[in-house]
Specification:
The complex is a heterodimer of chains A (202) and B (207).
Chain A: H1 2-38, E1 40-42, E2 67-69, E3 75-77, E4 86-91, H2 96-111, E5 118-123, H3 130-140, E6 146-148, H4 151-158, E7 166-170, E8 176-181, H5 186-198
Helix pairs in contact in A: 2-5
Chain B: H1 3-12, H2 19-68, E1 81-84, E2 88-90, E3 96-104, E4 109-111, E5 124-127, E6 133-135, E7 144-146, E8 156-159, E9 162-171, E10 174-184, E11 186-187, E12 196-206
Parallel strand pairs in B: 2-12
Antiparallel strand pairs in B: 1-3, 3-9, 4-8, 4-11, 5-10, 6-9, 7-8, 10-12
Helix pairs in contact in B: 1-2
Chain lengths: 202, 207
């Protein structure tokens, strides 16, 4: 009888311990699930590419045609620059490295004007409005044409990547000979500009 | 575990104990035998308890990781910032600070709440009204200086690694959830990515 009682007590004790362990575990599991539901990841629309020189499908291809509006509402097309070396610079008003290189581009646009160099900036975040864009470019001292992007132009040039700045170096034949993604040094930029001017010269 | 059998040995090898008393010892010994079995049983219980508590501990360790959300690999594309959604317990009806912890993916930074340039987008948290919660002004941490490698002279003011925004609240007793939105703009060491607005669910209990 005593033995049975003890066994019963033991069995009850073990059951209690196992049950409380299970209960504890299941509570933790539900808390964990609640946590996972509450968790928020800040996810970009596209994976970050970083510098992707040479990775773009546009490398070595003809520059995609565009007709975009400038800050005065005037239409500007790729064909307007036919026969000239052209630097197409995608930038954004929020983009600190873009604002570092834009004064350099301004300098190159003057320095290499005798070589026929043209530079255009295409604003990625055109939704901020012409006034905000104009304030930014005035502050930076930029006088080369600033155009407003469209979804089509973004698709054609950026192929889904959102990394800025991104520049396309187009030779006199209209072919993209170099693409630079991200901020490099002023010297690197200038050597690409020189390369673009030299390309296609007969 | 060895104590039981050792004592039994002593019990059995007790020659100096008179026979009439030895019965008593035998009785005791039998009883001691039960004790041994009981000890074994308790040892079994202890073992089970150990296993259960170890399981619970593993569960807790897993939960710890899930709370932080940094160690488990996300199935989504690369994220710039993670919100460590930790449920917090605070005193009710008293001004208290909620800690909102964010982790930025290594290699990226975001502008601080007070970037140096007017053109840059500050990191801001916007709260929706929540019943039973009176929020105070958000307290953002100071940023740290950052320069792009190719222009070391230009100093930006950024958050990198992790940062904690503090939210003062006075809340009625009970469970609360504040819907919030974090706006930030991320860059790596050469490129910048468009600004994002993402939902942040702040959950806490006031007791």
């Amino acid at each position: 009888m005593r033995r049975a009682l003890l066994l019963l007590t033991l069995a009850a004790g073990i059951t209690l311990v196992v049950w409380s362990g299970w209960k504890n575990w299941s509570q933790r599991r539900s808390a964990m699930q609640a946590q996972q539901q509450a968790r928020v990841d800040l996810v970009p629309n596209q994976p970050a590419n970083g510098s992707s020189d040479g990775q773009s499908p546009l490398q070595g291809k003809p520059a995609p045609a565009f007709t975009l509006l400038d800050l005065n509402g005037k239409k500007v097309s790729l064909s307007d620059f036919k026969g000239r070396p052209l630097l197409i610079n995608y930038w954004g008003t929020y983009c600190a490295p873009c604002m570092v290189e834009m004064p350099w581009l301004q300098e190159f646009s003057r320095k290499y004007a005798p070589d026929g160099l043209a530079i255009v900036g295409i604003t990625y975040d055109s939704e901020v409005g012409r006034d905000a864009i104009a304030r930014t470019t005035q502050k930076l001292g930029v006088t080369y044409p600033i155009l407003l992007s469209t979804p089509k132009a973004e698709k054609d040039y950026l192929s889904g990547t959102e990394a800025l700045p991104m520049s396309f170096y187009v030779d006199r034949e209209g072919k993209i000979i170099e693409i630079s993604a991200g901020l490099g040094s002023k010297d690197e930029l200038e050597s690409l500009v020189k390369e673009t001017i030299a390309a296609g010269v007969k | 575990m060895m104590i039981g059998p050792a004592r039994t040995q002593i019990d059995m090898d007790a020659p100096s104990i008179p026979r009439h008393l030895r019965n008593g010892w035998e009785t005791t010994s039998r009883s001691s035998g039960w004790k041994i079995k009981s000890r074994r049983a308790f040892a079994s219980i202890a073992a089970v308890a150990l296993i259960v508590s170890a399981t619970a501990h593993i569960g807790r360790a897993q939960l710890g990781n899930a709370q932080l959300g940094f160690n488990d690999a996300p199935a989504k594309p690369r994220a710039y910032v993670l919100y460590a959604a930790e449920p917090q317990s605070v005193p009710a009806d008293r001004r208290t600070l909620l800690q909102l912890r964010f982790q930025i993916v290594p290699g990226f930074h975001i502008n601080s709440h007070t970037p140096k340039s007017q053109f840059l987008i500050p990191t801001t948290l916007t709260l929706q009204p929540a019943t039973g919660v009176k929020p105070g002004p958000l307290q953002y941490p100071a940023g740290q200086p950052y320069s792009f490698p190719s222009v070391p002279g230009d100093k930006l003011d950024v958050y990198a690694g992790s940062f904690t925004v503090r939210l003062p609240v006075v809340a009625t007793p009970g469970d609360h959830a504040i819907a919030a939105t974090l706006r930030y703009q991320a860059c790596d060491n050469a490129s910048c990515y468009p600004p994002r607005s993402i939902p942040v669910n702040i959950v806490f209990t006031a007791k």
